[in-house]
Fold each of these.
Amino acid sequence: MLDFPANPILNQEYTFNEITWVWNGSAWYKKLQMVSSTPYIINVDLNTNGELVFTYTDNTTQNVGVVTGENGVSISNAEINENDELVLTYSNGVIVNLGVVVGPSGPSGTTITITDAYINTNGELILVFSTGSSINTGNVVGPTGATGPSGAAGVDVTNASIDTNGDLIITLSDSSIINAGNAVGPTGAISFSYGITPPINPQYGDIWLNTSTGNIFVYITDGNSDQWIEPFGPTGATGTTGATGAAGVDVTNASIDTNGDLIITLSDSSIINAGNAVGPVGPAGNLSYSPEIRKWFFS
């Protein structure tokens, strides 16, 4: 029986019973070595009965018989039943039980978790498990990339000043100017006055010196009323005389010894050497007399 190859390519040959067939791209034709007057196949057809029919150049045909096999049977369903048996159902309705295909359950496994993960100095990822074992998964750090292009030049402040309206004016390096708004608060003032009577229309924080008593007052509000208060309080009365202190020590004698040191004797009989108190001897002076004015001169 002829059994042509599936999916043939152009000019592919197939030989059966010493007869060679050639695929012309759409059908198989018989390759014959004969003179040109001998009929040759010009068409190959498969009829409705599955029979292969050749048509020759002289319009004769040849039926070489059935070349189509019967329809096959396929598996339409496969399942494992409650008894752990594999049951196959075929397309023709036949059911086949292939027996138990599920083995007994194995022992319970040990749960292993990752307890730590880190990259070592070589750029390798190290996984540490709950069992204490570890795995080196290899290098996970790529090489350093090339340096990127420089960013655009930034803008900085080249000047800052406060104008006549009290606004802060900022000048940037790109010559743009920003008015940051008012930066100067109102001018504060504290009034100081003096006299024997308080000033008229005082403001909170004003200071008044009462010249008759020498006391200083500050004008405040305590939330209920406005008033002058003495922040330092008045001078207190003179206290009683304190007890007599211990007797002091005074100098009872002072002299210069032969070394030129100043020797001080105190009333408690203690002696203090205050150090050298005599300077070096100066040069000799000259004494002269002026008869015109009748006076002596020392030089």
Amino acid sequence: MDDLIALRHSSARANTGAQRLLRHAARGKPKRLKLNRDMRADDAFRAILSDCLSAASAQASVLKAGRSVEALHHLRVALRRLEVMLGAFGKAFSLDWFGDLRSRAKAISARLGPARDLDVFLEDLWPEATRDGGDFAPLRRAAEDARAVAWEGVEFCLVSEDFSHFLDDIAALSQSRLPMGDDRSIRRVARTLLQKAAARVKKRGNPIEGGIQEDYLRGLSEAYTRYFYDYTESPLLIVNSERLNFVDSPEHLDLLVERMNAMRGGREFFNRA
């Protein structure tokens, strides 16, 4: 599987250079999913689910190598995408047991939440909140202490059986050939999901959402896809990490750095034979 450095072997033994490489790699964007409107909905679901899993695994690997505010944010984004996927397709396929996986994704995200909230508070909100002066030192110390405890919770969560079993179950689902739903195409299922989303917007009756039309939701979805899967602002190297071990084999890291230095732009792929 072509991942953007989904490094499964990252650990506390990773050196500083490897940590920087992991963080750099995790900022990249995966290659565009090969979906088409006539694809069966269950095949499209597995492809999207596998993409979400790769993103979550990559960010978790970064966090296992060392603390990263950015990686924690992106891991929670990946978990949220999994929540949405499992909820939407569980209803589309009439598979209630998807709800259990969705609840587990939500529970893991909740365990990571306190650290993310305190990161935002101390990194983004603190300068604005204290700009008028005053003695905020006690509050700062208390917030930093709480943040340290919250990050210990993140570290514990990522090495827990709950987290590893969840990723294993998502991987098994993405690779299984169990029948899901009927023979409908992803186009038909997506249209149904979009109509239901529009109906929920209308039912909520929120004035801010009152003017949202189905065409807008469709355009928003397409724009999101183009941004995340057609990234061209900088050179992009997509690495197949299946035969690479950056922790125990320094020569693998040397190969990758050499390959990165040889890039001349555009989108390229690196596969170690």
